[in-house]
Design brief:
Layout: H1 10-70, H2 74-88, H3 91-118, H4 120-128, H5 134-140, H6 142-159, H7 163-188, H8 193-213, H9 224-263, H10 265-298, H11 303-330, H12 332-339, H13 348-356, H14 358-374, H15 377-430, H16 436-458, H17 461-487, H18 489-498
Helix pairs in contact: 1-3, 1-6, 1-7, 1-10, 1-11, 2-3, 2-6, 2-9, 2-10, 3-6, 3-9, 4-5, 6-8, 7-8, 9-10, 9-15, 10-11, 10-13, 10-14, 11-13, 11-14, 11-16, 11-17, 13-15, 13-16, 14-15, 16-17
Length: 499
Amino acid sequence: MEETDQTMTQTDRGRYRSSFGATVLFSGVQIFQILIRIIKSKFVALYIGPAGMGIHSLLHSTTDTISTVTNLGLNTSSVKIIAAAHRDGNREQINKNVTVQRRLIWITGFIGLLVCATLAPVWSRISFGDNTHIWSFVFVSAIVLLDQLNKGELALLQGMRQKKKLARANIIGQTLNALITIPLYYFFGIKAIVAAIVLGSFISLSVSSMFSRKLGVDSIQISWRETFNIGKEMINLGFFLSLQHAMHTIVLWVIRNYVSSVGGLEEVGLYSAGTSIVHVYIGLVFSAVLTDYFPRLAATKTNEEMTLAVRTQAELTILLLSPLVVAFLLCCKPVIILLYSDKFLPIEHMMYWAVGAVLLQAVGWAMSHTLLAKAKPSYFFFNELVATVWGLPIKLLCYKNWGLTGFGMATMICHGIYLIQVLIVTRKLFGLSYEFSLWKLFILLHIPVLATILLKIALPETLSFICGGIVLFILILFVLYKLDQKLDIKSVIKNKIRK
């Protein structure tokens, strides 16, 4: 039976308010972290110069790569196991799961540390072409373990649905990291790089541990046999997540090499800049949403609960994203110049279609995570593999025929086909189907997005901006109206005023 906005119960509104609050909270955290990183980068660049920034970047990129390979995706896979035990309120099982998670994280983190430290001469020659930074890699190997431990404590907060504690841990950790390490660079310059990197990781771990200890979750004595039995699900899921990440990296490598052979190195740079805007800046929204959405999805017990969780998140995400997408389309040209320069304006039309596909991506993304939360990990991987098999040729073919703009068009086509694929897969596995209200909202929000794209392509710049501004104004009014229906914003404001 379809749930209309007029017949929504307090339970329904509570569900939407919880999802909305979490989305806004973690989006704010992401924005704050970006600002802190920008400020820190500015000061660091000022105090250690381009050469120091190069050393810092190479050390960090090497340890990040080693960590990605050795951590088995435990920071994501453990969230699912902890969230399921937290849902059932089984304190003993929570303690067991956390004990196993911490053991596995210590093991994988220590392996990563050994890989970084023992192969330090190799990393020094690969990164710097000589042996001058061997000891730098030996000392920074500590952050492979520290970062892994930190992600484990944050995963515990995430799995236990401690949204405010998780947000505070991220904000305080980033702030203290900047406040303590920036003076090191000021006083000691390039000599402080290794110490600042290690100290920053230790500070982040200390803050996250302080918040996780408040949960009252204790490590307990369990056998290694039981550790293996509980941990194999975490490792299995993490293994397929790592495979999926590796597959994504290979696809990017293939595309960049194809663009280089067809269009030259300049087009590779343009393509990389365009995808960076979409994946890094728009991707931050998905990252923020996932912080609360994934443990909530993993905690659902029935297919009906899972359907409600997916629909709630999909509706709120596209409602919040649609005005941002239209605003970005209107300001695409100045944004490209601001982030890069006017030399990157050839990606403008590519960005229209790529950003215009975000709403398709948001719905497909919300539905695909049911495979990660509830199905076998291999199902999620093979779903992504199938999408890659047909998606890569589409992207290369569109680029061959329409250049960089073709990549944008291919992005919209691929996200559309992917949505259909996920609908078929999740319906077959879980019997999931979604009411017409979701699709009606989905279509209505796509109209202003597509209209803005066409206006930007067909009309002169000034006229398209004016007409697009009118479209954006109407869209904002519609979004506010729909949010008020789902959240009853007026009542929330009145209650706040009374309090």
